[in-house]
Specification:
Radius of gyration: 18 Å
CATH superfamily of one domain: NAD(P)-binding Rossmann-like Domain
Number of helices: 10
Structural class: alpha/beta
Distance between the termini: 31 Å
Protein name: Sugar nucleotide-binding protein
Strand order of the largest sheet: 3-2-1-4-5-6-11
Strand content: 15-25%
CATH topology of one domain: Rossmann fold
Order of helices and strands: EHEEHEHHEHEEHEEEHEEHEEHH
Helix content: 25-40%
Shape: globular
InterPro entries: NAD(P)-bd_dom_sf, RmlD-like-bd
Pfam family, one: RmlD_sub_bind
CATH architecture of one domain: 3-Layer(aba) Sandwich
Length: 295
Amino acid sequence: MTVTLIVGGGFVGRAVAAHLAATGGNPVLASRRMPTGSDAPWARLDAADPDACARVVDAVRPDRLVLVHGPSDVTWCEADPERAKALHSAAAAHLTAAARGRRTVLISTDNVFDGTRPDNDEHTPTAPANAYGRAKLAAERIVREAPDTTVLRVSLVYGWEPAASPKWLNFFAACAHRLSAGEQVEAPDDQWTTPVHVADVAAVTAAALAPDTPGLLHLGGPDRVSRAEWAETIAQGLGVPRSRVVRVPKAHGRYASRPTHTCLTSTVLDDVLRRHGLRVRGVAEGVRDLLEAAP
């Protein structure tokens, strides 16, 4: 059975592990702290420690790796940019060295672009507008120097997370919990994204582990929406007044450091989806599917 080491036990890492387990794989999560809400085997790992990376790879003996390591909190990275870059770079360097040529996928971000364009494909020049984007781009460059690797840039990922999760809940979960509780939600009407359902991210990540995948791949959803429009779609799905969504400029609050356009398009994704029998759902379908399966 194929063993996949997934470095990062957060929201996306757990989803990738669940998808691989459900499709006959053998995933192992590795992170500093034991992940909650996952049945996958777990190994404790400080990815900034080269010896620890070598020990975990030797112990798990993976056939392939998925790197979803953090820190991914944009606000935290902006407060400590040098440490953010050092952590992302160290993990990428140590794991590609320890993996010794094993097939590897790095999950990266749309924040490697400056936000001036409404679409960014694999040929768009990178120009990070924030510290998180600069840290991820540094990790990308390290991974792309290693053999048999793919960098998978992903747009804003969404899905259910418990209301008791930390303050950096993904946008869908934060909106759904607050709107369901009768609260208002402030959402910028001048920050645009191409959101991707977490289950679709997991499926495409699994497909990207195939050795014939391009070295750089963009995964964005088919809909380009502002966060305010997206929040109103969530409100409509919940059957609550759309007026509970308060439109604000992105400069107001936590979205100030986000690029205006965090949107991804692709010149090669359609071919990958076709070869693996996959499709990426739009925002309305994704919201409907999540609300129908509400925990």
